[in-house]
Amino acid sequence: MTTEASRGAEAPPELVQLLTPEGERVEHPDYDIDLTPEDIRSLYRDLVLVRRIDLEAVALQRQGELGIWASLLGQEAAQIGSGRALTDVDMAFPTYREHGVAWCRDVDPVKLLGLFRGVNHGGWDPKEHNFHLYTIVIGSQTLHAVGYAMGIQRDDASAATIAYFGDGATSQGDVNESFIWASVFNAPIVFFCQNNQWAISEPLEKQSRIPLYRRASGFGFPGIRVDGNDVFACLAVTRKALEAARTGQGPTLIEAFTYRMGAHTTTDDPTRYRVASELEAWKLKDPIERVKAYLFKNEQADQAFFDAVDGEAAQLGADLRRRCLAMPDPEPLAIFDHVYSESHALMDQERAQFAAYLEGFAK
Amino acid sequence: MTIMSLSKALNEGMRQAMEDDPKVLIMGEDVGKLGGVFRVTDGLQKDFGEDRVIDTPLAESGIIGTAIGLALRGYRPVCEIQFDGFVFPAADQIITQLAKMPMRSLGAIKLPVVVRIPCGGGIGAVEHHSESPEAYFTHTAGLRVVACSNPADAYTMIQQAIRSDDPVIFFEPKRRYWEKADIDTDSTEWWPPLHAAKVVRPGTDATLLAYGPMVKTCLEAATAAEDDGRSLEVIDLRSLNPLDEPLVLESARRTGRVVVVHEAPVNNGFGAELAARITEQCFYHLESPVLRAGGFSTPYPPSKLEEHYLPDLDRVLDAVDRAFGY
Ligand SMILES: Cc1ncc(C[n+]2csc(CCOP(=O)(O)OP(=O)(O)O)c2C)c(N)n1
Ligand SMILES: [Mg+2]
């Protein structure tokens, strides 16, 4: 009962790439990008800083300061490239792993930690950043993103939404429904799928027999696969798709082909289901190293620049740690806050009862 | 006798069921090589193959919907829902199809599907990983709903659930997965029926009704109450639908005071059904109203607050105090 891999497969998928793993710039007829040395240095800085945030969070979890953490290691280029393609008016709907996109949306990294530390379920104001709360239930947010895009349409605004999700999520009913809605309503949305090859322990073959970007054609909109470890390509492809969305050309599915270099989360043990050589192969395609190589080779940055970024990263990490530890625990009665937007009799009753109960201990 | 953790007991129970009946299948997310995120299916794929232990696509509605199809074809699927909060994408298939199809077919169709759900809080998890959704399912006719609280029950109940010709929603107390007990795996004579409740600690002054993760909490409360000179009876319901009513009512009549304890919100929780039934049938025996200790009527809070949300020993004893206050 094994699947015949050949059935349903077509020509090998094309991958949009503008920067090779060795740091060579390559041209692509449809996706070119004009980046100044300053732009590239800035992208490099983003990549390094979000990796540092991530590493610090993993360390904080190991030391018991966070309950769990979902690492973005290996996916920095997909997130910074797509995140930097967004304009202020665009709206992003993340999963639980989009720390790099959050960075691009100016969400203070310490605010990302609240959910993982267990002090709140969100921690930032989505409206302030045009960056929605993290969504843990796989796929749900893709429908929210489409609905939001339908609102943009009805407002006659020049903006787009972007929905983030993983390779595993593409199996969910919600995600498939979101494709249908986006297509039927020609919604201004970009579906940004980070195919990091794994959904916890399940490899992509458990979700799909065809490359994920090809799913789009069945729904009636373009799909494109991009080198998810190439920040230039992710930026170029996402920019173009967002622009298409803003100008009434409807949805695009982008499959960012990348790799989850760490465990699924800090509670996962990948040695149970994947071989170490896979990681070694992907390390050669590291999203940061290739930008560094490019900058070096083209003499667009010197050692002083790289040292300065490293110094900034170290400081950011230390600062994040300090502010994580300083995060106050929520008050017990906060359990009852914001459940309803207007006063609610049962809430008031339970809050009062619980306050009296706690008072009893104080005495 | 073998010492087993609750998760291992489930694993051994499923292994036994798979050996006994080639139609038994395991399906779910990450149940294969990983052995499930709680390792409950550890090693089963290795021993029974990928056709019988199926890593499914990431889609809960798909898991239950295809399990129904497999059951129509004579299989007995045991579905793992990775966490309580993720059963909701499958709610449509469970409520509109799984629960009702046998009745619609006038008995021609049997759907021996087991839906395993790790439930409850207390493990410091992020949202959707600590829910107690049992009332949604006890409210749905056509489903049998059970909850194990300890390794021995886990071992027997999972096998009985798999043997049941009806769909069974099987709740597993995730914070008790690692608790161990000695289990007699050689004989089935000691097995209680799947839907029998059990007096796990006899007492005379009040009855605590619990299931799943709260049974242990109630046992601790009963021990603590002893110091105050109160003798609490603790009943592990084990089965919520059907309910072992005779056992519950007998205890209620004898002690005259009942406190129901569950993690799920008190408001519209399973305790409300118990309270109503006991009140209807034991009214003249009761010294106090049936009281309930449970979660608040709020979403499950961030983990730093869960110790306040979850009923603990103090909250249970507080309810007992109130029962004696009448
Ligand atoms: C509806 C639902 N089912 C199951 C889970 C448990 N779960 C969390 S992450 C995950 C895998 C997700 O894989 P993918 O979509 O590829 O995203 P990645 O984690 O790789 O970024 C699963 C099964 C969940 N969060 N939501
Ligand atoms: Mg993935």
UniProtKB/TrEMBL annotation, chain A:
One of its GO terms (biological process) is branched-chain amino acid catabolic process. Its cofactor is thiamine diphosphate. Residues 48-313 form the Dehydrogenase E1 component domain. One of its GO terms (molecular function) is magnesium ion binding. InterPro entries: Alpha-ketoacid_DH_E1_comp, DH_E1, PdhA/BkdA, THDP-binding. Keywords: Oxidoreductase, Pyruvate, Thiamine pyrophosphate. Pfam families: E1_dh. NCBIfam families: PDH_E1_alph_x. This is Pyruvate dehydrogenase (Acetyl-transferring) E1 component subunit alpha. It comes from Nonomuraea deserti. The gene is pdhA.
UniProtKB/TrEMBL annotation, chain B:
It holds the Pfam family Transketolase_C. Keywords: Oxidoreductase, Thiamine pyrophosphate. Residues 4-179 form the Transketolase-like pyrimidine-binding domain. GO terms for molecular function: magnesium ion binding; oxidoreductase activity. SMART domains: Transket_pyr. Its cofactor is thiamine diphosphate. It comes from the Bacteria. Gene3D superfamilies: 3.40.50.920, 3.40.50.970. The keyword Oxidoreductase applies. Signal peptide: none annotated. InterPro entries: THDP-binding (IPR029061), Transketo_C/PFOR_II (IPR009014), Transketolase-like_Pyr-bd (IPR005475), Transketolase_C (IPR033248). The keyword Oxidoreductase applies. This is Alpha-ketoacid dehydrogenase subunit beta. It comes from Nonomuraea deserti.
